[in-house]
Recover the amino acids of this structure.
């Protein structure tokens, strides 16, 4: 009966899911400024009987909503994202992510007094830029969580797969300036060292084709008649594992440092954004979600063809068993994330139906994890293995 109760409860709450989707869509807020979204979700969770803590882990728009059953049991985590993109709004579908996790948490709560256990919903700001989930991981938010279940809208439905980890390196070159018409012997051109480093990184890339390495020059000097004593460039480096990411970051750094040394300038190397880890899907958990989801919709979860880009859910997946399934919101596919057309697609009737189905499947998956100790043991064994 538990699964059917969950389905019926979420169906009875679907107007609340539609409200979240609509209000976030009509009032998009960029990362770290999601005041309305955070307040809306916090209030709705409180009304549903959850205890809510706001302004956590150094993030004023972050929150944690909890509900504990009448007896002890496993803890299930759901993730709400709600930041939008500048100018194009919810073109990554975070308005739907928040709604799905709200629905899933409410649905699982409807049976939790019977099953025992705990639900924890993490309101994680600014996935798009500063990777807010890293703050939660570093603050040990997931230490007592047994499994995390999250879904993301997408042009087509796909199983939870793998994402690339990302390291963000800034290289600042320090030389000695001079008048460009009268360069002195002790002049050291910081921009020349940067340009040579940029070219040498391009040469290095052919030897590590599995890496994704791209950068920009963000400061190359102030005037053409002054030889620059300062220049700066920033790089994103992506890789399929934590170990490979560290290796590639070290190789790029060594390349730059040796080039700077040969040019007679110094270089400072910093990580200008939080490091984002690759997603490690728990396939045992993903298989349970797939079975539940495909009973509720005509869409099928396809095997992913390769790596998705980068998301801070990867950091979560490295500390707790996690899935991040992709929910198709069109019947034909063809759209792209971070595109105004995708934002519009989140508001269609078809997307609404898939949103509700995903919320039901998420809650039903959490129910199985709580009520089947052997399943939880298998999930944990895969995570540790």
């Amino acid at each position: 009966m538990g699964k059917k109760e969950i389905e019926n409860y979420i169906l009875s709450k679907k107007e609340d899911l539609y409200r979240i989707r609509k209000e976030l869509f009509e009032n998009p807020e960029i990362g770290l400024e999601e005041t309305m979204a955070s307040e809306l979700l916090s209030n709705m969770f409180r009304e549903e009987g959850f205890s809510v803590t706001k302004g956590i882990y150094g993030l004023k728009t972050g929150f944690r909503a909890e509900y504990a059953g009448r007896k002890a049991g496993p803890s299930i985590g759901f993730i709400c994202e709600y930041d939008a993109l500048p100018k194009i709004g919810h073109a990554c579908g975070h308005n739907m992510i928040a709604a799905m996790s709200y629905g899933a948490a409410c649905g699982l709560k409807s049976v939790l007094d019977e099953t025992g256990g705990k639900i924890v919903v993490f309101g994680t700001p600014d996935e798009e830029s500063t990777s807010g989930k890293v703050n939660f991981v570093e603050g040990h938010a997931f230490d007592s969580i047994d499994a995390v279940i999250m879904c993301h809208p997408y042009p087509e439905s796909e199983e939870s797969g793998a994402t690339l980890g990302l390291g963000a390196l800034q290289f600042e070159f320090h030389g000695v300036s001079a008048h460009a018409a009268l360069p002195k012997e002790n002049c050291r051109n910081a921009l020349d060292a940067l340009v040579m480093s940029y070219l040498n990184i391009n040469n290095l890339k052919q030897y590590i084709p599995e890496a994704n390495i791209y950068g920009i020059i963000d400061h190359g000097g102030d005037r053409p008649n002054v030889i620059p004593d300062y220049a700066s460039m920033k790089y994103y480096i992506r890789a399929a594992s934590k170990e490979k990411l560290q290796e590639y970051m070290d190789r790029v750094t060594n390349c730059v440092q040796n080039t700077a040394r040969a040019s007679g300038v110094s270089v400072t190397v910093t990580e200008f954004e939080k490091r984002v880890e690759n997603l490690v899907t728990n396939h045992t958990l993903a298989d349970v979600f797939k079975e539940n989801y495909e009973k509720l919709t005509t869409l099928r979860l396809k095997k992913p063809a390769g790596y998705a880009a980068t998301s801070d859910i990867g950091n979560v997946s490295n500390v707790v068993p996690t899935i991040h399934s992709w929910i198709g919101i069109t019947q034909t596919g063809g759209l792209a994330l971070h595109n105004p057309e995708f934002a519009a697609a989140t508001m269609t009737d078809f997307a609404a139906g898939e949103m509700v189905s995903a919320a039901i499947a998420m809650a039903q998956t959490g129910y199985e994890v709580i009520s089947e100790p052997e399943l939880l043991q298998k999930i944990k064994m895969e995570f540790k293995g």
